[in-house]
Amino acid sequence: MHTLMSNTPVTEALRAIRERAGVGVREMARRLGMTSPSSYSHYEDAKRFKDDYLPMSWAIRFADALEPSGVDRTEVIALAGVDSAKPPPDVDERISQLSPRRKEMLMSLLADLEAAEALDLERQEKASGDAN
User: Would you say the pTM of this structure is higher than 0.70?
Assistant: First the structure.
């Protein structure tokens, strides 16, 4: 149970990041919308949290909660096992790697989303016109 960059368990690394930011457990739980500090402290307790890495969804939430205190998001995201040194591929690169069939499916999906967005915009404009 160690972080990507060191031999420090993810639970200890998370605690160190939070403490360095000057955020208490109770405040961290509040920032995350948790009703109990023990709900958050689970992720800092090696006896309770035994995974090698944080779930990505929680790493993102923790990063969101700690960023206002000056913590670099990539430091927290790294606790999910992501190598922040390698940037994710851009959209064009990802699309270029799709099969022709998948590209067609993607274009169809985009067309559906654009049509739905146009319809929503039309409804909003009509509703705001009706309100005037």
Answer: no
